[in-house]
# Entry
Amino acid sequence: MPPRDQSQKLLFRSARNAVITALLRNEALSRSELSEITGVSPAAITEVAQAFLQRGLIVELPSQAGGRRGRPIVQLKLDASHSCFVGLSVGEAKTPLVITDLRGRVLQHQPLAAYKTPSELTEAAGEALSKALRTASIPRSRLHGIGIAVSGIVNAGEGICRYSAALNWKDVPVARLLAKALHLPVWIENDANAVAVGEKFFGRARSLKHFSSIILGPAIGSAHYINDMLYRGHDGSAGEIGHITIDPKGVLCRCGRRGCLDTIAGGHALRDAAKAAGLSATNMRGLEDFALHGSAVASRLLRSAGNALGFAAASLVHLNSPQCLIFTDIEGFGNGVFRTAIRQSLENNIMARFLGSTQVVFTDADTALLPRSAASIAAFEYLNSI
Amino acid sequence: MPPRDQSQKLLFRSARNAVITALLRNEALSRSELSEITGVSPAAITEVAQAFLQRGLIVELPSQAGGRRGRPIVQLKLDASHSCFVGLSVGEAKTPLVITDLRGRVLQHQPLAAYKTPSELTEAAGEALSKALRTASIPRSRLHGIGIAVSGIVNAGEGICRYSAALNWKDVPVARLLAKALHLPVWIENDANAVAVGEKFFGRARSLKHFSSIILGPAIGSAHYINDMLYRGHDGSAGEIGHITIDPKGVLCRCGRRGCLDTIAGGHALRDAAKAAGLSATNMRGLEDFALHGSAVASRLLRSAGNALGFAAASLVHLNSPQCLIFTDIEGFGNGVFRTAIRQSLENNIMARFLGSTQVVFTDADTALLPRSAASIAAFEYLNSI
DNA sequence: TCGAATTAATTTAGTAACCGAAGAAAATAG
DNA sequence: CTATTTTCTTCGGTTACTAAATTAATTCGA
# Structure
């Protein structure tokens, strides 16, 4: 047998970690496959698998000899139902709460009652959680953490919401409050970061080492994974693509400057502009429909939005050269004028060399996206602590 | 004694690494200081120090009791002369080679003879190295590696220069060629990346976890350190700030598109523009002087260059939120119109929130900057392999 | 049908890299 | 000269691995 290639080994923090990562990326793997993929010795795989089996984190599938010579392989699989996580998205109009399993599947959906203050949030979350657990008959003991996606500026390390315009909060220790009330570990994260974690953990970025995620919502946010790690910026505020200047003489932005990308391509700004132009579009699907049926104004708005976004995203690609750019559409633009304009603008503004090497993906977000992503943070932290 | 804080431990790959990093950042440290700084146990520090002392990598300073109670402390210090590294910068008009010590001090400077092909480079490098060693009477045995900064696109992992316009090279296995000829380990790196490594290892970025370096040369390059690691992008081409579009209707760039930052603020472009305007400035100091003495054209060129660069750098700050932005001036602009315009443009284009939190630094490069930076790559790799 | 071959997984023994606690070393204070 | 203080080392133990040998469970071929 050739000496084992250990070049990959350093990529993982530990053998346990490597095994979990491999099992998240693949439905089921045998011990020898795990050894090969992770670069960890078969002996160590046996040991780690034993520990995980004992905990109930993984299960053995019935062995399948299958016409092959040799001892039959026994596949291992994460037991998705082993643990559940709570995901919560605050800052939106509604406050959805979900319970997911270990693989990010939503088991239960339960919106919170309206709230204003942090303590009202705590109370509403407690009630919604109890109800969700009751309805889905999930024992509390199976919960292993809560993730919260906040639309605003967050200090993830300390679990503090530093500022949220939507909630009118400043320096609220959200994580501590909820952890105390619900007796569970709580992590909070900016919503764009949460979506990126979700994509990395459960979504289409699972095997990408470097990617950026761009969220098309009321405002435009982005987040970067670099070297398999979420990069938050030195003070937790990387990814402010929405405030890249597009037109120095443009509309005043709430950040105090003029012509930020948000004022041209943010959902909120587009709704305002549509209203000002006399178009009665309540959501972006409506605006796209106007454009589709010949409205020059709608078309112009969407095209200039797409151009601006493509321009800013091109800067991102030139600067960071991600493997993939994931656009997440939570405003319901769908595949229309906006997307086409983004694609075109990207093509026009990116060096030829990058065009082939950076994948561009568009995703339609469902309503559970943010809370589900939030839950993935808790899942990630839990599995990393194992 | 309170239980030791081990929160920092994970930041380092190993105790050895932590000790070296601490000793690079500090002139001299006692074992107990090292233990405190790195979070490694005193026992482990003793062990690591012993190994390093044996190798001659560090030395003990004479102990100083100094009026204090208790056993006198013994300070440890990297022995800069323990090992030397070769740095080489290719792609410029001249090809400077330097020999540095372990702390990045240049011991000897020896430009290469002219060359065109890779094999001519190998020969010229061998001759220059021999001469440099002879002149400085450094024994060959003290050399531990060669770092090469290439102006072009590089695959650092495989040691291949994928493309260099200045050299007219394509897929040249530079590292392998030189390693074979000179019997030393060779690393190559894009020049902007090399400068960033130099700043991180020996320069003002030693204790910065995240920073970006922007090189103002014939072309404009940039490089990012993120989470204490050089981030090269998924295919080794992050940092192409020079090809961010500033003016879609601008001058044709050699990348095939129009109005790239390089065509407005690159040294090469500015020289061309100055010549076209009838200004006989051979270098950028000359152009700045024209502006200083009232030339409206020179002033306009430098201001628009600075505005464009500030605009692009603002995008970088919004996207990546580095702790620090280090501009390295290798064209000799000095502190004039250009810098002022960059600073102003940054202020105008960056959200207020970032203004205070992102440090902006300008550095004047000396002629040894690139080869010295190249040598730091070899030093880094050598110390990491210990 | 039964051993040979083959592949998967486990066991065993060993190592590197740490840690904590106790102890030794080298100074000062009284 | 002894107690105190601080630095550094020694010692024993743990964790997380590895390589090599061994066992397990199957198919193939005579």
